[in-house]
Amino acid sequence: MVGRRPPSGIAVGAALCIAALGCNQRAYMAPRTDAGPGADGAVMGPLTLDISVTGCATFDVTTVVCSGPAPLTVSFAPVGSSALTSFLWTFGDGTPSSSERAPSHTYALPKSYDVKVTGAGTVGTVSQVRHGLISVLPLSAGAACDVDSQCSDGLRCACKLGSGCGPAFSRGLCSTSCATGFCGAGAVCAAIALGAPFAAGDGGSPAPADAGVTPPVCLASCGGGAACAAGLVCQQLPGGAASALPWVAGCLPIGAAKDFGASCRNADGALEDAACTTGLCADIGALGVCSAACTGGETCPSGAACATLPGQPTPLCLPACSPANPCTGDPSLQCTVATDADAGIDGGLTISAGIVGVAYCAPK
What we know:
Layout: E1 10-11, E2 26-27, E3 49-54, E4 58-60, E5 65-69, E6 72-81, E7 86-90, E8 104-107, E9 111-121, E10 124-137, E11 144-145, E12 156-158, E13 172-175, E14 187-190, H1 196-199, E15 217-220, E16 232-238, E17 247-253, E18 281-282, E19 289-290, E20 305-307, E21 316-318, E22 333-339, E23 349-353, E24 359-363
Parallel strand pairs: 5-10, 22-23
Antiparallel strand pairs: 1-6, 2-3, 3-6, 4-5, 6-8, 7-9, 9-10, 11-13, 12-13, 14-15, 16-17, 18-19, 20-21, 20-23, 22-24
């Protein structure tokens, strides 16, 4: 019962939840007198026992449901008569019972689970079952996963651990091919492979046939200021023909691929297209640059310029110089102020798209 002092003798296993404060835990208590010997040795009332749970992403105080995405780790505690000294927990997912007083438990798969606790003491035993107390939710597109069954309908867990997608994929990503360009709310359609291209940098061994998803693929969106989940980083990705946008911002595991503007020559000095989110490691500077062609109707990522560079057969996209991209990692590159196409060969960096007067990372 929220907002009420527990009866004398009841040991509260966790703080009471006040719904207005948005806390994700609650102690359930029946307003009855504690059982136990009184001053004359007689039992004073019935035993009481209920369940407190913490660790929920959300807690509905009306339906009494603790929910969160898979895998969901929560902690339980008994709430009730102080005469109860030992407890047995059943988690409802087929795993072994626990005799810990306040156990933690991880629910791996999306489902609704019943939780039961039995308390025992010198004065007797009592049990409590909370039906549907735990609700594990399926994962949306781009979320980190371990097995296919954790993902929402229509998605699979691509590049999960051991698939050969590279060391950056300590966990997989829920994804699917988005040939129609639609991935659902909070996701984007990106023209990038989840699988074999990333495996090329992992000792050269090919990825298993079931490791990847055919591009374009669905990823979690990080556009408009949205943040990526822990272990993922926001990167600029080509949207591809199926996407409504030429470039999108999507979340990938840290170290899985190099973002637009990053150096991309491998240890042998070769240009490594597969290492770039853009799919092109251009021969710019000493270390190469993850770039994209910008001929015809092709466009560059937001903030970049389309530049005509000496020795390059086609115009290429160059990143703007900024605190995040100071253009100091390659000794053959520098920040150069852009001019329009009519400035002539001595006018600076010639661009056909971008902002005149802004400095871009270009060859010296």
